[in-house]
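Lab manual, section 2.4: Encoding a predicted structure.

Procedure: take the sequence of the chain (211 residues), apply the prediction step described in section 2.3, and record the output as structure tokens. A sample record is shown.
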Amino acid sequence: MSEVHTLLLRLEGTMQSWGYRSRFDYRDTALEPTRSGVIGLLCAAMGIARDEYKDHAARFDTVRMGVRVDKEGRPERDYHTALDVIKADGSGTDKVVSRRDYLADAAFTVGLESADTEFLNAIADALRHPRFFLYLGRKAFPLTVPPLGPDDRPGPGTLEEHLLTGDGEGRVMLEAPDGERTQHDWPLCFGQRRFKPRRIKTAFSGQGASA
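Recorded output:
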């Protein structure tokens, strides 16, 4: 088996939204970045349009993802009113009030682990010179700091070695076959909004790579 490397990204913003169960007039957010949201950000950096993702999905599927919560966000909710919305049965229009959740003042470190170091380096180059605008789940939510520093590159080691070591007690979410919970946010096709479940386990930084 090839040695794996991990690329660390900084996702920090005044507002973030990582929906994975949003339907109709309710737009939810997870408490940390979703896989679909992070892959969408990477695709924007690399210039991959929504309807082109299926041609690149196999390479993204080789990447294992983890998230360390450096600063827990504060859940907030906005209400939006839309007028003259056509009813589902076509009988006329109505006023619709939608709920939109987001996280305020959150900060995360996202780890991308893969044996395909060439692909990780291509991701790093694209994040420094993105083709499309980068945002944190919604187009109105930009990053407040660059996702990578000028010298940041993939380093040898697993997600555990990069995210679980060091000081602090930050919550860490790791993709793992034996994860204790399932989240339906592994993208199959962005154009048709098709996703599959992934398993996630929770650990805490400072426990070391053996956690």
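Check your result against the sample. The beta strands are 5-16, 26-27, 64-71, 74-86, 93-114, 155-156, 171-175, 181-189, 194-204.
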